[in-house]
């Protein structure tokens, strides 16, 4: 599983594209540990210039009171800002999609 996750994320970083990978399984099977280890290896590769720099953001869905709180968690880790779920969603929309509308960050 490590190789599959590593290869997927490394490819997205090298291609400068987004993507989504769904990882599931019963508790205690090492999902989080594997993803954190992949992140550690990729961060090491970024520090030596092998791949572009990136920011790793971790969200544990079991700790969210509702799905929309994911926006709040992402924004806080990305910018340090904390706000409502609706406002966080709007800020993230602009952050990630603003350059598409000619407002490059």
Report on this model:
This protein has four helices and no strands. The radius of gyration is 15 Å and the shape is globular. With 105 residues, it is an all-alpha fold. Residues 101-105 have low confidence and may be disordered. The longest helix has 17 residues, at 31-47. It is 52% helix and 0% strand. Helix 3 (69-79) packs across helix 4. The protein has helices at residues 2-15, 31-47, 69-79, 85-97.
Largest sheet: none
Beta strands, count: 0
Q: How many helical stretches?
A: 4
The parts where pLDDT drops under 50 for at least 5 residues are 101-105
Q: Structural class of the secondary elements?
A: mainly alpha
- SSE succession: HHHH
Distance between the termini: 34 Å
Give the helix proportion (percent range). Answer: 40-55%
Instruction: Provide the residue-averaged pLDDT.
Output: 91
Gross morphology: globular
- Please state roughly what percent of the residues sit in beta strands, choosing from under 5%, 5-15%, 15-25%, 25-35%, 35-45% or over 45%: under 5%
Instruction: Report the radius of gyration as a whole number of Å.
Output: 15 Å
């Amino acid at each position: 599983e490590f190789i599959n996750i590593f290869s997927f994320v490394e490819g997205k970083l090298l291609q400068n594209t987004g993507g989504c990978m769904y990882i599931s399984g019963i508790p205690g099977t090492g999902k989080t540990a594997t993803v954190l280890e992949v992140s550690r290896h990729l961060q090491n590769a970024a520090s030596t210039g092998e791949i572009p720099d990136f920011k790793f953001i971790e969200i544990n869905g079991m700790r969210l009171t509702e799905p929309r709180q994911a926006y709040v968690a992402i924004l806080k880790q990305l910018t340090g800002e904390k706000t409502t779920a609706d406002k966080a969603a709007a800020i993230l929309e602009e952050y990630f999609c603003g350059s598409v509308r000619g407002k490059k960050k």
